[in-house]
Amino acid sequence: MPQLEEGYSMPLVAIGRCRQDLSWLANEPNAWIWHGIGEDETAPAVKKLNDLNEDGNWHPFGYQNFVEL
Q1: How far is CA 49 from the centre of its chain?
Q2: Residues near 22 by Cβ (< 8 Å), separated by ≥ 6?
Q3: Residue 62, SS3 per DSSP
Q4: CA distances from 48 to 7, 23, 53, 61 (A)
Q5: What span, in angstroms and rounded, lies between the C-alpha atoms of 63 and 38?
Q6: Could you read off the pLDDT of 22-44 as tens digits, one per residue?
Q7: pLDDT for 46-65, tens place per residue?
């Protein structure tokens, strides 16, 4: 079985909300990917996550939207 080098951990990416509290999403996973958020709601969501963040590390936020071609 592959082993991680000492001092390294497996990255955790949360996909969806799964009824998790926003403070958990802001602190536990290394990144969060969500859907169903509008373009105008993105900046406030990212600000809220940054405000709730306790470890001072950047936790990326990604979202899915449809694009008409």
Answers
A1: 8
A2: 48, 49, 52
A3: strand
A4: 30, 9, 9, 11
A5: 9
A6: 999 999 999 999 987 888 999 99
A7: 999 999 999 999 999 998 87
Q: 57, 44, 50: which is closest to 11 by C-alpha?
A: 57
Q: Which band of pLDDT confidence, cut at 50, 70 and 90, is reported for residue 9?
A: confident
d(CA 5, CA 7) in angstroms, rounded, equals 6
Please, where are the H alpha helices in 1-69?
22-27, 39-52
> Is 45:61 a contact under the CB 8 Å cutoff?
yes
Tokens 């080098």 correspond to: 5
